[in-house]
Amino acid sequence: MNRSLAYYVLRFALSVIGVTAMIWGVSVLLAQFAPEIAQMVFGGPAAIGIGVAIMIFPPLQLARVFYANEERRMGRGEGWSLAFICATLFTLVLTGLTFAALSQRAGALAEMQQVIGSDLAIAMLPLAILAVILTLIYRLFFWATIRGEVRRAERRAANG
Fold first, then answer.
1. Which of 39, 90, 123, 134 lies 20 to 30 A from 49 at CA?
2. Burial class of 90 by CB neighbour count within 10 A (0 to 12, 13 to 18, 19+)
């Protein structure tokens, strides 16, 4: 590898932070100046699409950066390890943000502590499932994006 695994994980983290900050900034501005539009865009089913965008954009960007630096496909071990680390990082950050948001609501944190205190394994199961699903999705995105980049480079080379 021309760059270290830590470099790519940092790029992933910065991409997640950038996308999240951009969406958060837009939501704050819309809530301040156009609350009706903010409720329509960030409330209800549309919020799910925004969450999916936050999960999809960083691995696509990371795969493009990987191909630009390495100019080759990811090896099996590289792709799976990078997908696992990024999915675990994303899951941990998402968990932290969830607890931070719950701490702002009166009584919600006490309810979560009661659930976690009763059986930690049950509380951790959804997070483990999320991490596994994200690992598979991220690996698929890495493969598809790098495959597209390889084809684009082959077309450029063929066209001269």
1. 123
2. buried
